[in-house]
C-alpha cells in the first residue's frame, strides 16, 4: 500500500475521531444547557451578584368581622457586607460612628461588620430617622433595608389566641405559630453586581425582587365578645368579682362557642400578657390554660352523665329518686353536698339540685362499659383538635382498674381530668341536637388581593345523642337556672340552660380542703342555642353557683344583646324559686352605638353622649382609631364605649405605641352597665 493511501486513511480516521468527539461534546453541551442551565446560571449569578434580603410583611390576623388583631408596621434594618467593609480599611472608624447612632458598643459592631460572611445584620428595628442618618453617611459596605415589626393594636386582647412573633418576625406561639406558613409571606431582595475581587462593578446592574406579603388569617373570634369575657376576668383578677369579697383566684378562663358550628367566639384566660412586650411577661401568664390545663370538672360534668342516662333510657325525668344524704358503693359513702340529703325528688329535681346520689344512681345504671363509651364519644381523654399548640388530652381513669366506686365518683365529675375546651365542646353537642363538632378558631385565609384562599367549614365528628334526648336535657338544664343551683345566671326574658360545678383541687394525691375550682357552663336561648359559655375559676373558697353564675350571666347578656338576640316574650321574667337577697338585671332598652372612627375625641364624646352612651379612653392622642363596641351594634342603653386614641386616623406609628407604656387594664374595663348580684352561698 502506498504511503499516500496510508496517509489518507490516517487522516480519515483522525477526522472521524474528531467528529465523534465534537458530536459527543455538542450532545453534552445541549444536555447541560437544557437540563442544568437554570442551576448553572443561578450559581454564576450567586458568584457575582450579592443580595440584600427584603423582608415581607406578615399577613394580618383579624377577627370574624375583619377587625385587625395583629398587623405589621414598617421599620428598617441596618446591614453590612463584610467584604466591602474590610476592603475599605475603615472598619474601626465605621464601628465608632455607628455606635453613636445605634447605641451599641463599638467593639460589638466592629466584630459583626468584619465577620467572614456574605451579609450581617447590624441592628434590626431602627427608627426611620436613624436609618436616614446611616444612609447619609454613605459608609462603604453599610446600608439599610426595609423591614417590619409585629404590632398588636389591642394590647392583651385575645393574646393567648393570637400568640406573638419574635425579632425575626417568626411566629412563636398561638395562631402566629400554627399559621406561620400562610402569614410569613415570601422574602424579596436587592441584587448588586460585583467583580471577582469583591468590588462593585461600575455601572453595575441592580435588581429588585419585591417581597410578597403574607396572607390574612381571619379568626372565628369576635372582638367584642372577647372583650366582654376579658373584662369579667379582669374584674376577677383585681378582686372585683361578684361575691368574691376581694379575693383573687390563681387563674380563670372564659370560653364562648357557637354550639351550632363549633366556632369559638371568645377564648380568654387570666392572668394574661401584652404580646407587644411578651419578653417582659412572666412565662406562666403566656400559658393558655383553657387549652393546656386539665382539672376535675365537678358537677358541670353531670350534663354528660345525664345525657348518657337519657339516651340509654336508664331514667325518666319524672321518675322519683330518694336521696338520704349519701350513696353507698363498695362499703363507702359518697355524700350529697346537702346535709341530710334532698329526700324524695324527681330526676329533673336531681338535676336542679345537683344531687350527687341521684347522679351516682344514673352512673350505676349505665354500668362501666356504657359509661366509658359515652366518655369516648363525647371526646374526653383525647384532643379536640383545636388549632392551638400544646393542647392537653386530659386524663381518664384506667377502665381495666376502675371499680364501682370509681364509676360513682366519675358520675359526679371527680376522678377524671378534662380541659375546659373539651367540656365546652361536649356540652355544645348536648345543646345543638346531639352532634359533636370540632372547635374552630380560623374562619378563612385571605390572600393579599382580598380573595378567600381557604374557607373553613364546620366539621362534624359524630352524633352522640338523639334530637329527642338533646331536647329533653335542654329543658332539664333550663330548670337548673330557673329553679335550681344556677339561679344566679337567670336572665329575665331569655331562656338560659346551665349547670354549676364545684370541684376540690388535687394536690400530692389528695384533695385540698377549702379550695375549689368553681365553674359554670350555660347555653342560650335554651330552645335554639346561639351561645355556649364556660367559666372556670381556679383557687377560690366559693362554689360555682356563687361566683361562676354571675360572670356567665353578664357575658351572656352582653353577647346576646350584641348579636341582636331579642328577649323571648314567652320566657319567664323571674325564677320559679327566687332566692332571698337575689337580684336580677332588669331588661334595659337596647340602643345602637354610633361609629366615631377617625373623629376628634371631643366630637366623638359628644356624639356618643347624645346617643345615650358613656365613654372611656385608651392610649394617647386626639383621634379615635378604634372603638368597642363597634358602630351600628345594638347593646344596652347607657353602656360604656371604649375609645382607642392615637395621633391621627391611620395606624399608630411604631414609636407611639412602643413608648406609651399604658396598662392594658383600661382596655378591658366594663363596657356595659349591670345590676350587682348578691346572694347567700349555694352548695353546688
Automatic annotation (TrEMBL):
Secreted as UniProt keyword: no
GO terms under cellular component: plasma membrane
Signal sequence segment: none
Membrane recorded as keyword: yes
GO MF annotation: an example: penicillin binding
Single Gene Ontology BP annotation: cell wall organization
Top-level taxonomic group: Bacteria
Family: Belongs to the transpeptidase family.
Listed name of the protein: Cell division protein FtsI/penicillin-binding protein 2
Source organism (scientific name): Desulfosporosinus youngiae DSM 17734
Amino acid at each position: 500500500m502506498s504511503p499516500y493511501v496510508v496517509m489518507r486513511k490516517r487522516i480519515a480516521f483522525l477526522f472521524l475521531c474528531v467528529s465523534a468527539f465534537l458530536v459527543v461534546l455538542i450532545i453534552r453541551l445541549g444536555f447541560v444547557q437544557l437540563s442544568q442551565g437554570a442551576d448553572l446560571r443561578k450559581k454564576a449569578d450567586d458568584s457575582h451578584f450579592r443580595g440584600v434580603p427584603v423582608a415581607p410583611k406578615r399577613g394580618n390576623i383579624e377577627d370574624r368581622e375583619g377587625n385587625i388583631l395583629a398587623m405589621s408596621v414598617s421599620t428598617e434594618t441596618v446591614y453590612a457586607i463584610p467584604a466591602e467593609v474590610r476592603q475599605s480599611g475603615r472598619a474601626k472608624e465605621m464601628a465608632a460612628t455607628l455606635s453613636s447612632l445605634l447605641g451599641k458598643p463599638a467593639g460589638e459592631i466592629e466584630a459583626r461588620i468584619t465577620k467572614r460572611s456574605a451579609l450581617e445584620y447590624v441592628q434590626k428595628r431602627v427608627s426611620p430617622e436613624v436609618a436616614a442618618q446611616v444612609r447619609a453617611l454613605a459608609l462603604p459596605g453599610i446600608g439599610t433595608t426595609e423591614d417590619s415589626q409585629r404590632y398588636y393594636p389591642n394590647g392583651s386582647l385575645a393574646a393567648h389566641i393570637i400568640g406573638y412573633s419574635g425579632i425575626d418576625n417568626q411566629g412563636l406561639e398561638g395562631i402566629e405559630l400554627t399559621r406561620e406558613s400562610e402569614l410569613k409571606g415570601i422574602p424579596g431582595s436587592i441584587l448588586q453586581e460585583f467583580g471577582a475581587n469583591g468590588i462593585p462593578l461600575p455601572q453595575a446592574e441592580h435588581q429588585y425582587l419585591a417581597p410578597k406579603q403574607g396572607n390574612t388569617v381571619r379568626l372565628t373570634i369576635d372582638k367584642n365578645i372577647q372583650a366582654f369575657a376579658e373584662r369579667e376576668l379582669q374584674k376577677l383578677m383585681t378582686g372585683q368579682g361578684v361575691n368574691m369579697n376581694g379575693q383573687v383566684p390563681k387563674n380563670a378562663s372564659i370560653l364562648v362557642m357557637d354550639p351550632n358550628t363549633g366556632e369559638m367566639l371568645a377564648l380568654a384566660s387570666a392572668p394574661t400578657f401584652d404580646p407587644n412586650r411578651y419578653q417582659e411577661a412572666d412565662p406562666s401568664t403566656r400559658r393558655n390554660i383553657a387549652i393546656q390545663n386539665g382539672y376535675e370538672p365537678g358537677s358541670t360534668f353531670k350534663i354528660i352523665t345525664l345525657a348518657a342516662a337519657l339516651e340509654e333510657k336508664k331514667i325518666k325525668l319524672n321518675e322519683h329518686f330518694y336521696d338520704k344524704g349519701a350513696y353507698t358503693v363498695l362499703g363507702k359513702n359518697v355524700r350529697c353536698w346537702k346535709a341530710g340529703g334532698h329526700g324524695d325528688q324527681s330526676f329533673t329535681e336531681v338535676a336542679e339540685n345537683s344531687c350527687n346520689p341521684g347522679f351516682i344512681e344514673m352512673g350505676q345504671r349505665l354500668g362501666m362499659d356504657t359509661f366509658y363509651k359515652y366518655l369516648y364519644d363525647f371526646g374526653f381523654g383525647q384532643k379536640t383538635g383545636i388549632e392551638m399548640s400544646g393542647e392537653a388530652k386530659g386524663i381518664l381513669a384506667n377502665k381495666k382498674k376502675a371499680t364501682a366506686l370509681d364509676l360513682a365518683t366519675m358520675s359526679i365529675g371527680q376522678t377524671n381530668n378534662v380541659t375546659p375546651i373539651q367540656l365546652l365542646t361536649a356540652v355544645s353537642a348536648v345543646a345543638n341536637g346531639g352532634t359533636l363538632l370540632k372547635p374552630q378558631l380560623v374562619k378563612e385565609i385571605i390572600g393579599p388581593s382580598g380573595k378567600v384562599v381557604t374557607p373553613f367549614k364546620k366539621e362534624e365528628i359524630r352524633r352522640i345523642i338523639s334530637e329527642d334526648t338533646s331536647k329533653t336535657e335542654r329543658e332539664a338544664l333550663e330548670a337548673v337556672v330557673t329553679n335550681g343551683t344556677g339561679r344566679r345566671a337567670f336572665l329575665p326574658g331569655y331562656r338560659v340552660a346551665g349547670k354549676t360545678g364545684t370541684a376540690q383541687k388535687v394536690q400530692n394525691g389528695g384533695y385540698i380542703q377549702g379550695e375549689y375550682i368553681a365553674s359554670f357552663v350555660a347555653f342560650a336561648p335554651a330552645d335554639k342555642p346561639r351561645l355556649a359559655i364556660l367559666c372556670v375559676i381556679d383557687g377560690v373558697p366559693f362554689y360555682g353557683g356563687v361566683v361562676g353564675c354571675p360572670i356567665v350571666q353578664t357575658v351572656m347578656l352582653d353577647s346576646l344583646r350584641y348579636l341582636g338576640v331579642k328577649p323571648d316574650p314567652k320566657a319567664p321574667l323571674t325564677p320559679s324559686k327566687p332566692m332571698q337577697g337575689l337580684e336580677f338585671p332588669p331588661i334595659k332598652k337596647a340602643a345602637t352605638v354610633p361609629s366615631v372612627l377617625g373623629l376628634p375625641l371631643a366630637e366623638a364624646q359628644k356624639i356618643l353622649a347624645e346617643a345615650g352612651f358613656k365613654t372611656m379612653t385608651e392610649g394617647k392622642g386626639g383621634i379615635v382609631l378604634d372603638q368597642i363596641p363597634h358602630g351600628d351594634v345594638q347593646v344596652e342603653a347607657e353602656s360604656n364605649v371604649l375609645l382607642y386614641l392615637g395621633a391621627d386616623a391611620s395606624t399608630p406609628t411604631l414609636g407611639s405605641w412602643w413608648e406609651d407604656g399604658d396598662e392594658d387594664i383600661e382596655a378591658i374595663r366594663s363596657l356595659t352597665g349591670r345590676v350587682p348580684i348578691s346572694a347567700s352561698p349555694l352548695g353546688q
